[in-house]
Amino acid sequence: MELQVVIGSQRAALELAGVSRGSWHYRFNPRPGGCQDPIHQADRAYECRISTDHHDRILGFILAGWEKGNSVDHAFATAWDNGVLLASNRTWWRIAAEYEDQQARPTIPRKRGSKTSFL
Predict the structure, then answer these.
(1) Would you state the pLDDT for residue 80?
(2) Packing angle of the helix pair 89-98, 72-81 (nearest 10 deg)
(3) Could you read off the pLDDT of 22-44 as tens digits, one per residue?
(4) How far apart are the first and last CA of the chain?
(5) Distance between CA 93 and CA 15 in Å, rounded?
(6) Distance (Å, rounded) from C-alpha 99 to C-alpha 105?
(7) What is the number of other CB atoms lying within 10 angstroms of the CB of residue 69?
(8) What is the C-alpha separation between 86 and 79, in angstroms, rounded?
């Protein structure tokens, strides 16, 4: 680096050139290359991933609850009360959101207020 010789300081030379010290370091000391054939995140196996059997079982609990007009939270709590804890509550909601036929989901009753005026 010729500027370092002229200026006498690597830090000052890099500042004058408009290059950060980190950029300069990695230009001369590049990181090793990554994987040649990376595995997509969705395809990676990890310990906390639920199996397809558990997924189907959870979906069965959710659909049974929906048939009775109950929410995902109610289905989760009912299964947990019966000693079945296959995944977190959030995972149950993800499974419910992935289900294609959302028409089966019960509707939430809306509060109907009065339209009376006090004037």
Answers:
(1) 94
(2) 130
(3) 998 988 888 887 778 888 887 88
(4) 84
(5) 52
(6) 10
(7) 10
(8) 9
